[in-house]
C-alpha cells in the first residue's frame, strides 16, 4: 500500500553544507515522492514535546538539546511500503550497530553518535500520522491516509 511517512534530516546533517543536498538526492534516487518539504528549527519546548515518550531515558536531555540546536529539514514522503523503506535506508538507531549490520545505510555512513544520527523516520502508520501533524499542522493528513 502507498504510505506516507515523516522523514527528518536532523541538525547534525543540515549543519554540513553538502549533507542535506546529498540526502535530498538520495530520497529522490530511492523513488520517494516528496509530498511536502520544509526547513524549520525547534525551540526546546517543541523538542521536549515531540520526544515526550523518551523522557526519563538516559539520553533524553542530550536528545532534546540536540534536536533544538539548529535547523532541520522535514519531509512528508510517499511510497509503497514507505515507512519500512525509509527505515531500511536509515539503518539502525545506534551508529555502531548500523556500521556493523548495514554499512551502506545513512546512519552508518553519516551518523556521528547514537543521538546525532542524521535522520529520523516514523516507525508505524500511527506515528507517521502523529509526526506529520506535528511537523506540518496545515497538512490534511486524513485526506491522504486511510484509517488503519
Ligand atoms: P530517533 O529514532 O529519531 O528518535 C529517538 C532518538 O533518540 C533517536 O533517533 C536518537 O537520536 C536518540 N537515541 C535513541 N537511543 C539512543 C541511545 N541509546 N543513546 C543516545 N541517543 C539515543
Automatic annotation (TrEMBL):
<feature type="binding site">
    <location>
        <position position="87"/>
    </location>
    <ligand>
        <name>ATP</name>
    </ligand>
</feature>
<feature type="binding site">
    <location>
        <position position="10"/>
    </location>
    <ligand>
        <name>ATP</name>
    </ligand>
</feature>
<keyword id="KW-0539">Nucleus</keyword>
<dbReference type="GO" id="GO:0046872">
    <property type="term" value="F:metal ion binding"/>
</dbReference>
<feature type="active site" description="Pros-phosphohistidine intermediate">
    <location>
        <position position="120"/>
    </location>
</feature>
<dbReference type="GO" id="GO:0005524">
    <property type="term" value="F:ATP binding"/>
</dbReference>
<dbReference type="GO" id="GO:0045839">
    <property type="term" value="P:negative regulation of mitotic nuclear division"/>
</dbReference>
<feature type="binding site">
    <location>
        <position position="107"/>
    </location>
    <ligand>
        <name>ATP</name>
    </ligand>
</feature>
<dbReference type="GO" id="GO:0006241">
    <property type="term" value="P:CTP biosynthetic process"/>
</dbReference>
<feature type="domain" description="Nucleoside diphosphate kinase-like">
    <location>
        <begin position="2"/>
        <end position="143"/>
    </location>
</feature>
<keyword id="KW-0460">Magnesium</keyword>
<keyword id="KW-0479">Metal-binding</keyword>
<dbReference type="GO" id="GO:0005739">
    <property type="term" value="C:mitochondrion"/>
</dbReference>
<comment type="function">
    <text>Major role in the synthesis of nucleoside triphosphates other than ATP.</text>
</comment>
<dbReference type="GO" id="GO:0030027">
    <property type="term" value="C:lamellipodium"/>
</dbReference>
<dbReference type="GO" id="GO:0001726">
    <property type="term" value="C:ruffle"/>
</dbReference>
<feature type="binding site">
    <location>
        <position position="93"/>
    </location>
    <ligand>
        <name>ATP</name>
    </ligand>
</feature>
<dbReference type="GO" id="GO:0004550">
    <property type="term" value="F:nucleoside diphosphate kinase activity"/>
</dbReference>
<dbReference type="GO" id="GO:0005634">
    <property type="term" value="C:nucleus"/>
</dbReference>
<dbReference type="GO" id="GO:0030308">
    <property type="term" value="P:negative regulation of cell growth"/>
</dbReference>
<keyword id="KW-0808">Transferase</keyword>
<dbReference type="GO" id="GO:0006183">
    <property type="term" value="P:GTP biosynthetic process"/>
</dbReference>
<protein>
    <recommendedName>
        <fullName>Nucleoside diphosphate kinase</fullName>
        <ecNumber>2.7.4.6</ecNumber>
    </recommendedName>
</protein>
<keyword id="KW-0418">Kinase</keyword>
<keyword id="KW-0131">Cell cycle</keyword>
<keyword id="KW-0963">Cytoplasm</keyword>
<comment type="similarity">
    <text>Belongs to the NDK family.</text>
</comment>
<keyword id="KW-0067">ATP-binding</keyword>
<dbReference type="GO" id="GO:0006228">
    <property type="term" value="P:UTP biosynthetic process"/>
</dbReference>
<feature type="binding site">
    <location>
        <position position="59"/>
    </location>
    <ligand>
        <name>ATP</name>
    </ligand>
</feature>
<keyword id="KW-0546">Nucleotide metabolism</keyword>
<keyword id="KW-0547">Nucleotide-binding</keyword>
<feature type="binding site">
    <location>
        <position position="117"/>
    </location>
    <ligand>
        <name>ATP</name>
    </ligand>
</feature>
Amino acid at each position: 500500500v502507498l504510505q506516507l511517512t515523516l522523514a527528518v534530516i536532523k541538525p547534525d546533517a543540515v549543519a554540513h553544507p553538502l549533507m542535506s543536498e546529498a540526502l535530498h538526492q538520495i530520497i529522490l534516487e530511492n523513488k520517494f515522492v516528496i509530498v511536502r518539504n520544509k526547513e524549520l528549527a525547534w525551540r526546546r519546548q517543541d523538542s521536549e514535546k515531540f520526544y515526550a515518550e523518551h523522557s526519563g531515558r538516559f539520553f533524553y536531555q542530550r536528545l532534546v538539546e540536540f534536536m533544538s540546536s539548529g535547523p532541520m529539514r522535514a519531509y512528508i514522503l510517499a511510497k509503497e511500503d514507505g515507512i519500512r523503506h525509509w527505515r531500511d535506508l536509515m539503518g539502525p538507531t545506534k551508529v555502531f550497530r548500523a556500521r556493523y549490520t548495514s554499512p551502506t545505510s545513512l546512519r552508518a555512513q553519516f551518523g556521528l553518535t547514537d543521538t546525532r544520527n542524521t535522520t529520523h523516520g516514523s516507525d508505524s502508520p500511527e506515528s507517521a500520522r502523529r509526526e506529520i501533524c506535528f511537523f506540518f499542522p496545515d497538512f490534511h493528513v486524513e485526506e491522504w491516509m486511510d484509517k488503519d
